Predict the 3D structure of the following.
Amino acid sequence: MTVLVIGKHGQLAQSLASAGGNDVVCVGRPDADLRDPVSLERVVSSVNPDVVINAGAYTSVDGAEGDAEAAFALNRDGPAILARICAARAIPLIHISTDCVFDGEKAGPYEPDDEAGPLGIYGLSKWQGEEAVRQTYLQHLIVRVSWVFSEHAHNFVRTMLKLARTLDEVTVVDDQVGYPTYCPDLAVGLLKMAKDATKPGFAAWGTYHLAGNEEIDRASMADAIFAASRAAGGPSAQVRGVPTADYRTAARRPLNARLASTKAFRTFGVRLDDWRPGLTRSVRALLSQHAAAPAVEPKG
Ligand SMILES: NC(=O)c1ccc[n+]([C@@H]2O[C@H](COP(=O)([O-])OP(=O)(O)OC[C@H]3O[C@@H](n4cnc5c(N)ncnc54)[C@H](OP(=O)(O)O)[C@@H]3O)[C@@H](O)[C@H]2O)c1
């Protein structure tokens, strides 16, 4: 099986590359640019994959509020083009989406068929990208993920460790809850789904959720990151929990980001492992990366 991944340097693209070995071909910009239909057409025809995973996106939730043009171009229009290209060749398309399509008002974890209600431009652009894929091509799997972390690229773990190098106390919201998701585990799950999607007779097209197995709030996750860092001899900081209402960001985020993964388990037998060992691995890897990099400003 050859899997073409749109994206190369992002955390999901890198995790898919590690998990899939020679089966996975990750292509980033400019060779695969979601703003450039010709590049997408060219890469799909030259790689000639059995399945495409779109791991490329405009991913800055706050940035999207001031850059709607880019968010819609990458998160809505690019996936629509990719779906048309895949449809013309009958190649299954796995498109990655987000918990931010929901408003976070539901009491329990979100199921794939729950009503969307994005709170900001990022969530809206991702929701419209989902809709574009659904309307363009039946042979799709839309897989919503949330709170993804790893030792690659930018994510909450890297941000917390960076802050702890210069601050004694960090302020983190304590009323947003989610299921943290270790990206290498997510990659293994997605590749299993990709494999099933290429089997003759596969018909379970549609929308799925894939997330870690244990709920936590953001402030408690920061505490867990610092505990893992301390245990590995790295920096840590006091966590001051505050309600989202007292913590201003450009974009509103769902208070409830929990995605129920039961449909993915029932259909594909995919269930993500406990995310805590992944957190320890990520923290250790990030500390090693930092130790190997040039020094930055010490705590003042
Ligand atoms: N991280 C999370 O917590 C989280 C939560 C919910 C959903 N998601 C979704 O998960 C998916 C993967 O996210 P991630 O965490 O891997 O994000 P990331 O680390 O920010 O990586 C973004 C990826 O998008 C690619 N990209 C950016 N502009 C592009 C363009 N014009 N054309 C093609 N590709 C472009 C980058 O490609 P290059 O390789 O060329 O740099 C990179 O591979 C996204 O769909 C995101 O919305 C992530």
In short: The chain has nine helices and twelve strands. The radius of gyration is 19 Å. Confidence is low (pLDDT under 50) at residues 296-300.
